[in-house]
Amino acid sequence: MSNEKNNKILLGSGLVLALTSSLCCIVPALAIISGTGSAVAAFSWAAPLRPYLLVATVLILGFAFYQAYKPKAKDECACETKRSFLQSKSFLWIVAVVSLLLSAFPYYAKYLQPQIPQQQAANYLPNQQQAVLHLEGMDCEACEGHVNNTLLEKKGVQQVHTSYPKGTVTIQFDSTRISLQQLADAIENETGYKVISPSSGK
Question: Which domain holds residue 142?
């Protein structure tokens, strides 16, 4: 009985850690689909912990596989009863695959996000302005897509380019239809990422 309980704890911990390690990327993708962008800020704490959570996931699942496949003692084989599905190797493999998919989410998240087309930027418009905003909290391409889609939905925004490695978003917009402050507020309120400092120019 204790082995079954320990097995459940191990597999449950592996799943939770795998999910937590990618919350910072899963939530932006879900926010785009469901329209609940404000939820992103609540999970931004997970981004710096991601490498440690991934290592912990690998260690826990590795130990679970060792327990499942280690050679059994003779007396243990003789008295072994039929195991439940939750104790089976099949269930262990299911948990491992789900954990792998959750952990790798940042690498395929961009393919799950709806893409809002960029407008064709007009040249030499007197009210056309370009601004660069520096953001805190982005750590994957899913974050880029979240910021891009949020801003492209705003009237007056023509083009957006976000770079999570640089922590910047470059926006081309019509200043008579939307202000730089409104853009910064939209990012903070609808994506949860913090705007550090804006710079702008014609």
Answer: 128-201
167 in a domain, yes or no? yes
Residue that the structure tokens 């989410």 belong to: 105
Residue with tokens 């400092």: 197
Q: What whole-number distance in Å separates Cα of residue 102 and Cα of residue 96? A: 10
* Same domain flag for 14 and 56: yes
Residue 123 pLDDT exceeds 90: no
Domains held by the chain: number: 2
Q: Which two tokens stand for residue 160?
A: 């957006």
171 — pLDDT class (breaks 50, 70, 90): very high
For residue 11, how many other CB atoms are within 10 A of its CB? 22
The helix (run of H) or strand (run of E) holding residue 200 is strand 194-201
CA distance 9 to 166: 39
CA distances from 99 to 11, 140, 180 (A): 10, 18, 41
Residues 32, 178: Cα–Cα separation, whole Å: 22
Half-sphere exposure of 190 (CA within 13 A, CB side): 19
